Amino acid sequence: MHFENHNWMHIEAYLKTDDRAILVLGACEQHGYLSLLTDVRIPMALADEAARQSGVVVAPPLNFGCSPFFLDYPGTISLRLPTLLHVADDILRSLHGAGFRRVLILNGHGGNSPVKLHLEELVNELPDLQLRWYAWWTSQSVAAIAKKYGLEAEHGNWLEAFPFTTVAELPGEGKPMIDPGAAILGKAATRHLYADGACGGPYQADPAVMDEMFAACLADVLKLLKFG
Amino acid sequence: MHFENHNWMHIEAYLKTDDRAILVLGACEQHGYLSLLTDVRIPMALADEAARQSGVVVAPPLNFGCSPFFLDYPGTISLRLPTLLHVADDILRSLHGAGFRRVLILNGHGGNSPVKLHLEELVNELPDLQLRWYAWWTSQSVAAIAKKYGLEAEHGNWLEAFPFTTVAELPGEGKPMIDPGAAILGKAATRHLYADGACGGPYQADPAVMDEMFAACLADVLKLLKFG
Amino acid sequence: MHFENHNWMHIEAYLKTDDRAILVLGACEQHGYLSLLTDVRIPMALADEAARQSGVVVAPPLNFGCSPFFLDYPGTISLRLPTLLHVADDILRSLHGAGFRRVLILNGHGGNSPVKLHLEELVNELPDLQLRWYAWWTSQSVAAIAKKYGLEAEHGNWLEAFPFTTVAELPGEGKPMIDPGAAILGKAATRHLYADGACGGPYQADPAVMDEMFAACLADVLKLLKFG
Amino acid sequence: MHFENHNWMHIEAYLKTDDRAILVLGACEQHGYLSLLTDVRIPMALADEAARQSGVVVAPPLNFGCSPFFLDYPGTISLRLPTLLHVADDILRSLHGAGFRRVLILNGHGGNSPVKLHLEELVNELPDLQLRWYAWWTSQSVAAIAKKYGLEAEHGNWLEAFPFTTVAELPGEGKPMIDPGAAILGKAATRHLYADGACGGPYQADPAVMDEMFAACLADVLKLLKFG
Amino acid sequence: MHFENHNWMHIEAYLKTDDRAILVLGACEQHGYLSLLTDVRIPMALADEAARQSGVVVAPPLNFGCSPFFLDYPGTISLRLPTLLHVADDILRSLHGAGFRRVLILNGHGGNSPVKLHLEELVNELPDLQLRWYAWWTSQSVAAIAKKYGLEAEHGNWLEAFPFTTVAELPGEGKPMIDPGAAILGKAATRHLYADGACGGPYQADPAVMDEMFAACLADVLKLLKFG
Amino acid sequence: MHFENHNWMHIEAYLKTDDRAILVLGACEQHGYLSLLTDVRIPMALADEAARQSGVVVAPPLNFGCSPFFLDYPGTISLRLPTLLHVADDILRSLHGAGFRRVLILNGHGGNSPVKLHLEELVNELPDLQLRWYAWWTSQSVAAIAKKYGLEAEHGNWLEAFPFTTVAELPGEGKPMIDPGAAILGKAATRHLYADGACGGPYQADPAVMDEMFAACLADVLKLLKFG
Prior knowledge:
alpha/beta, globular, homohexamer
């Protein structure tokens, strides 16, 4: 069940028996050879399937995140961090005002992490609002699968190369992992350093690995939706 | 061509021969019996077809707009107006930074109109940025077709009832046009006044009318994409 | 009764028997040959007379509005839109805090329209605050009179050419209506397009038309002051 | 010469021979028995006369200032301090954009003092902008006259009791000077402490004293307008 | 008792018997030959001793204030005024949330004065919060001692030249008092005018004068801590 | 060399031969049995020693960070995230304006991490500004030492228990590691979950381990100060 396929009467009816929602925070930014919307598509794919299995309603995704470092890659659209914080705040206040009390936020983009911190203020103000935050690529599930297959989970190119994020042929050969070090690089140095935009390692993994990873993340999401 | 189906290299290549983009500003708000995403779907449908015919690239839509008056209808998600202004500003700065110089904004929601005014500041600051603003339902094309068929264009229920926005059976009978008068109602009085959320008039028009209207709006969009 | 001719004790006494106020939102911007304060003077003239007839108190006018498009015309002073929204919010919170519960906002400037939307948030927060918004030049009264005399109401030069806004000799001959089209022009292109600043049509109408129009608007205002 | 009596062509012509302007920052707040607009009327009276003698143009006054402490006195309308700072910034940017390079700010209200500090940032950014700040009641001229007549200048009731600010009969007898001490009182305690709103001392001075004081302030203003 | 030497359990215990705290607002800005942290060190010295004598707890100092005029002197770090206002607001909300109800703010820097005004809003919102504001150099105690020794209190160089703020040899000879006049100078003109950064007068006073002054200010602080 | 022990002339002289500075971002928040200023003291200790060895100047620390989750522990003072971002921005702009071009930020608090992201915008705007960010407890050095001694690095109680942060006797026995899970808890649930405020594990480590860790971090800092 997705907001976009329903009208307000449906949501009102839904709220009589459930108070949960899924919210996807994404980004529109360079992902090397992958889709500019990779950070929307992955959490949305999880949301779609989790919604199908659990019946929880899915709000429309936020298609933009905070990506100032990638602004020299055309196609990156970045919200300034204060803007993003206000957007997240407004969305969650609207959901709370409508009667949602438990919201699982599926974040698809590392640059959105400050939202998690900022929402502590909202929970301080609205103590009956239960929020869960899931950033799939930081999960123990993903770490375990990466380890199992001898892959580097963190920012590996392969990690986000799902069939539904792949919009161009991927290089067969990987590239060395890039170490950004301690610098706050800015967009120019970032592009110079990352070149094709990928962070290093193989550009793709075996489809079975990707499936296993997706399934594990989906299991995480379904568990989180119990708000235990 | 849509951002989401492409990577940054594609956009960089595109920018070598074109500097135009389409941006959809939508809303997630009650639309009576229609989809909560009606204000995204209509301009996005225009964008899709215009992109197909013109080759101009389409940025991801902003799924949220400013709808404080509808916050008592569950499913409405509203950005506060200052938030929305900053979002629009950030998106257009990103596009400009990437090299886009002509952007057609397809606005799907009346509550987003202040963005148009606010963007004057951006153009003052970035004089090489050409912006066009199209709010399909306020166009002369729509007015002409409505008049031709004896329909009320402004906020008529039927106006947005396309097959792709209809998510429930529509009432056969219309309802009287609601006159909000001069009041700034607030969400509670708005819900009381609008009841099912529709603004009045018939809930649907003949499919041929809708097709004609869509075609006329599409023609407008294609013309605007020439940035004459 | 105007704030400026009274002290706080008078207002406190007034509030024992009435909770209404009139607030004028104006602008300081180019109006072709007319006064830079045209958008203050017209609603203030209505307020003055309405106050005289109704006894409702008039707050001091906001002399500045949002006019970024006219910034290349010397004499235009524009508040950025977020600034304007905060100003309106602060003024109305002050009035509400003092005990005013019904405020009629007489807006004199099109660029201030977003305030109306923004104030929905305030009413959501303060449900006992009743607000009415009147932008005289968009009224049905004005439309009817313009039509009756074969004049174009919208942005016609003549429309604002009252004796009390006329500060220079007006051209005898009108000019063609300017069509800004769909562009968000920015200040430079706006000045280029509008040249003398007028929007087109005759620069003045028969004094009797102006009187009739003023009387009709005043009747509107008096009716709105009943907060029916 | 005042903005309100002129159109943009007049201002453009003026700017060919002069780049000075006077801007009045006022307040709408309780002043005991005096007009709620006292803090506008006094600097505006100075501006009027200074303009007459010098030919410098006068911008429209800001009728609202920052007066949170007086919000329990009906009739006080207070801008929050960040709002006020943005307003002042916007106004001066507009004036600078139009070609004004020397602006004398006549401040009528103590609560607006932070604007002076904030505008340092603007001058840092726009080094060709010369600003002068005059708060008449803090001037050495006023101090000298008060001393000469054995009056307490600072916040004395009499100090602002000009014929053009007096809107009610003034008490014959003064009251003891109120010492707010070191507390940040808030509106409730402020009203409790100030009662009728006056700060203490006699409620009026001899008209000749007032005339002398006004003349002295006017001389200050005229001198400052030389931007020596 | 200082926050930094204690943990939260200590503060919780403290709050069972007392609800007072001291907060130092300072600055990091040029002070001529004196320490860049002069405006922290003086109020902190007062706080240290007052805490020792009274047992009132001292929060960590804010090491930065609003000093835009001194930004051309290396070592000055200035918060923009809106930033500073938000910082002060956040700190005091945190203290109030923890149970503090009486806070004495020892301000060390003239550029922080707008905070006092801004905090009126906070007291309006949280009426059970008692705030006192002490800017030692504006006190009657300091004025009296300066007068007694024939020194100019206001911005005299000597005034802040305590042993604990002196980080370089001080000139033996004073310099003429600088009169900034009515200009909002901006950083470049300010540095030009103030040269070595001192405001004029002797660079140091007799140690006994400094001791007497410190003792008098300390007595003020101890009295204010009674929140009478 | 620290700002506080120097005047502007010293800094100006310093800038003739060096353009580096160290900035400490801290927090004032509960740390279990440790000092409320733990997150200032640790990076400041590193800064002190690194300054001594390298001669790089140290700016005053920011004593407050973003800690909304700990606001139910008395003594926690939290800046709202947008406030913190503006503070960091203002500080770095001031340093850049003075001529500093390479700044090493020693962050002592996890809740300040969003600053790193936000400063990307600043570097985008000021490309000649080189920034390095070091959060000692996330360093590979710390991870390696923790592993070597079989300790859990992340948020272990012992990790921050230096002699100079210990302000009370520490429990001899550790407590189980607390798993906050995926929830955005808010302050009330956070206090309930963390009880004494510690995150779990032993409350202290062998002094030799602490020394080794400090030395390793110091080496990191000294290396980063080369801005290689």
